Amino acid sequence: MTSVALSGALNTKRRAASNGDAVLGLLLVAPIVIAMAALVFFPLVETVWDSLHRVNPMQPGTPFIGVANYVNMLSDADLGRAWINTFIYVVIAVIVETVVGILCASLINQVRVGRQWLLAAVVLPWALPGVVNAVIWMWIYQPGAGLLNGILMLFGLPFDNHVWFNDRVGAIIAVSVVHIWRMMPLTIVIVLAAMQGIPDHLYEAARIDGASRRQMFFSITLPLVRSAIAVAMTNATVSAFNLFDEAWVLTSTSADTRPVLIQIYLETFQNLHFSYGMALSLVVTVVSLLVSLIFVLRVYNTTRYD
Amino acid sequence: MQPPSLIYRLTVWIGVALLLLWSLGPIYWTLVSALTPSTDFSNRPIHLFPQQLTLTHLERLAGINIDRIGGVQVWAQFRAALFNSIVTSLAATVLCVAIAALGGYAFTRIDFPGRRVLFIATVATMAIPGYAVLIPLYRLMIGLHWVDTYVGITLIYVSAFLPLALWLMRSVFEALPISLEEAAQLDGAGRLYILFRIVLPLVGPGLTAAAILTFLGSWGQYLVPLIFSPTLTKPLTVLIPEFSTKNYIDYGLITAAGSVAIVIPALVVIFLNRYLISGLLAGSTK
Predict the structure, then answer these.
(1) Do B27 and B153 have their domain in common?
(2) Are A136 and B26 inside 8 Å of each other by CB?
(3) pLDDT at position B67, please?
(4) pLDDT of residue A293
(5) Domain span including residue B193
(6) Which residues of A touch B262 (CB under 8 A)?
(7) Least CB-CB distance to B135: which of A130, A181, A278?
(8) What is the distance between the alpha carbons of residues B265 and A306, in angstroms, rounded to a whole number?
(9) Contact B132 A249 (CB under 8 A)
């Protein structure tokens, strides 16, 4: 009897404690819930809802227009151009950041002395504000006094007053270089961390079997860092879809180089097509996530057989 | 083990030199340009090392030799922008890390209704880019009269970086052995005592990593303050591109202001590199 009573008392005590715990837990997460609900979830729902209406501060009322905003996108020539530009940026950025990033990571992996400092130097461009990076490169690309033309002329090349933003190809490459300069460090850090996690004895065994460095890179290193590469490619994709600062500072609103995000900004805050801008931002979000998903799935499928 | 061949070592060193040149070259050039007289800018052949140094550009920023652009004093604008950048980034960092630390602890250690759903919902918003909520946020901030205020912009930064900080803090708490807390609980210590006196002092590195990521993220924002901090609370990132107008681009001023905007993140990277890397890795393996 006493033991039953005792355990009953203990139970109620425990229940009281866990009730108190639950209240405390909810109190501790309350700031998160309030902040996220007010500043992310509620606005997100509103974005979805408003994208189905005509919201324009210049026109009265917000009538329901169904998917008209989404249908209009299909016949929007400026938008089509912006999409093509964005895809070009994504392809250039993801390929260069991945290939060169892997090479840089394996290079840093070979360095024994001062690796920490080398890594700090490599990460630095990523840590700087995007617009400041863009301004730095604007100065480097400057036709009359810029560093790039100056160096090319030191080599005797005819780049006196060469304007890098005159043609579309040049401008897109110039913007991509700035974006790559900022985002490649992330790829390097992610891939390098995976490389450092590969056990040494794998390389020892391969060396005893007489494998060359190139063979070891392709048959040990690369397969073992595949999932890290997928993560890095996902990051690279999402950040290239989100390209804004670099293009905005370097080429302003030029239609030749304008990525989708600048198109959204112009539609929304210049043309005041609020709901069209919202529909667009949802589409960009979904597309960038789908493209990233492709990398993840492909990599998981190919690694499964190793 | 055979020693690496000379050619191999040479290749590595050349590669490292190129990598350093690529990463630091543009930064070096900015710092040098900030100290070069404007009249020397278009000297050809170009001098990769400055021929003569000047403090003119920095003095104009600091307001020592007062200069005017378009009737507005540059130094007053610059000082306000620097102050705004520091205030908003620091406020967002402190608030974000504090909220994430408390919430992260609750999400890992305390059982309460809705725990899983709330955590997943919060972390999933990392996949949603900020511009998808920008317009409703703008209307919300106008309704609250929070456009161009410290409160408004700080709260937006907090909501933007909270998911990442929370994700990081939870992984830090999860790595902590629970036996310590259980022992304290047996001794009759309350939850809050355990959290503040035992757990938080142990997760300093995790807090530092979350703080660095939030600070660097807030410091580098452009599109958000362009919309939400247009005048009174305008940060450096919005001010610096304004130095280039259609007719005249003052590169001396731009590189000098850019150098200031570079120095603070650079110090963070140099002195807190280890925490930054661990934070980046925790944040990227979503």
Answers:
(1) no
(2) yes
(3) 57
(4) 84
(5) 72-284
(6) 128, 132
(7) A278
(8) 41
(9) no
Per the CB < 8 A criterion, the answer to whether A126 and A103 are in contact is: no
pLDDT of res. A291:
86
Q: Tell me, what's the pLDDT at B31?
A: 92
Confidence of residue A301 (pLDDT cuts 50, 70, 90): low
Q: Which amino acid is at B280?
A: L
Tell me, what CATH number does B93's domain have?
Answer: 1.10.3720.10
Render pLDDT for B51-78 as a digit per residue (tens, 0 to 9). 788 887 887 787 776 655 554 578 888 8
Confidence of residue A243 (pLDDT cuts 50, 70, 90): very high
In this complex, do B135 and A277 lie within 8 Å of one another by their Cβ atoms?
A: yes
pTM of the shown model? 0.89
Query: What DSSP line would sit under A70-117, residue for residue?
Result: HHHHHT-HHHHHHHHHHHHHHHHHHHHHHHHHHHHHHHHHH--TTHHH
Is the separation of the CB atoms in B35 and B255 below 8 Å? no
In chain A, which among 63-102 make CB contacts under 8 A with chain B?
A: none
Q: Is the pLDDT of residue A237 over 50?
A: yes
Is 1.10.3720.10 the CATH number for A77-303?
A: yes
Cβ contacts below 8 Å, chain A against chain B, sum to: 269
Confidence of residue A154 (pLDDT cuts 50, 70, 90): confident
Cβ-Cβ contacts under 8 Å, B285 against chain A? 190, 231
* pLDDT of residue A305 exceeding 60: no
Nearest partner of A275 among A286, A284, A285, A264, judged by Cα? A264
ipTM score assigned to the predicted complex: 0.89
Locus of tokens 């944040």: B283
Number of domains composing chain B: 2
In whole angstroms, how far apart are CA A238 and each of A217, A242, A287? 28, 6, 10
What is the distance, to the nearest Å, from the Cα of residue B220 to the centroid of all Cα atoms in its chain? 5
Comparing CB atoms, the residue among A125, A231, A265 nearest residue B284 is A231
Chain A window 166-185: which residues touch B at a Cβ cutoff of 8 Å?
Answer: 181, 185
